[in-house]
Amino acid sequence: MTAMFPLFLFFVWFLAVLVPTLGKKSRGEPSGVSIFPGFPLCPLAAWGISTLLDLAHDRLGYYLIGGLHLVLLVCVIVFSVKYLYVIKRKT
Fold first, then answer.
1. Which of 77, 83, 81 is closest to 31 using CA atoms?
2. From residue 63, how far is each of 38, 45, 60, 90 by CA, in Å?
3. Cα(18)–Cα(78) distance, rounded to whole angstroms?
């Protein structure tokens, strides 16, 4: 596992906790959200699970958790683009 892996996990979760702000803004609601439950606990848990899976089989956690986070990143990008489009249409 490289040193960039935990940084990738934290980056994805940081973006993921900001998407609800865009969603609320697109609906015209106040955009305050709490990032504490999702960030920093979830990336730390994912990193720990990845490390445990790596003990069972070399690079299993790296590929499994990394792949799931790639899917999460794609979802974050899709929803961000959707919400930005809605916001731009309203203005």
1. 83
2. 21, 16, 5, 40
3. 13
Region 11-23: what's the mean pLDDT?
A: 91
Whole-angstrom CA distances from 29 to 26, 33, 87, 91 are: 8, 11, 12, 15
Q: What is the reported pTM?
A: 0.89
Residue 28, phi-psi category: left (phi > 0), alpha (psi -120 to 50), beta (remainder) = left
CB-based contact 20:33 (threshold 8 Å):
yes
Take residue 34 and report the two structure tokens written for it.
């709490």
Residue 16 burial (CB count, 10 A): 21
Contact 5, 62 (CB under 8 A): yes
- What is d(CA 83, CA 80) in angstroms, rounded to the nearest whole number? 5
Average pLDDT over residues 8-35: 89
For residue 52, the one-letter residue type is L
